[in-house]
Specification:
Radius of gyration: 12 Å
Structural class: mainly alpha
Largest sheet: none
Oligomer: single chain
Number of strands: 0
Length: 76
């Protein structure tokens, strides 16, 4: 599923995850720039290989003012 996303969507997903880490970037712009600079064809493996990924994504969404509850299961 992740590898089927556009490069831009994969960059956003990595940036959201990084925003949810305690030692992550301080701003959304910084997170996106960093994720873009490191984007490659192994993004899916990287994300799935990060054990706390679900928590980081949830916390990252909160850090940018969004919530998992905004999305319906059918949208995912």
């Amino acid at each position: 599923f992740i590898s089927d996303l556009s490069d831009g969507a994969q960059v956003d997903l990595v940036a959201i995850m990084w925003m949810g880490r305690a030692e992550g970037p301080d701003s959304w712009t910084e997170a996106k720039e960093l994720a873009f600079s490191q984007q490659n064809d192994r993004t899916a493996e990287y994300l799935v290989g990060t054990p706390p990924m679900p928590d980081h994504l949830k916390d990252g969404l909160a850090a940018i003012g969004r919530s998992c509850s905004e999305y319906e299961e059918d949208d995912v």
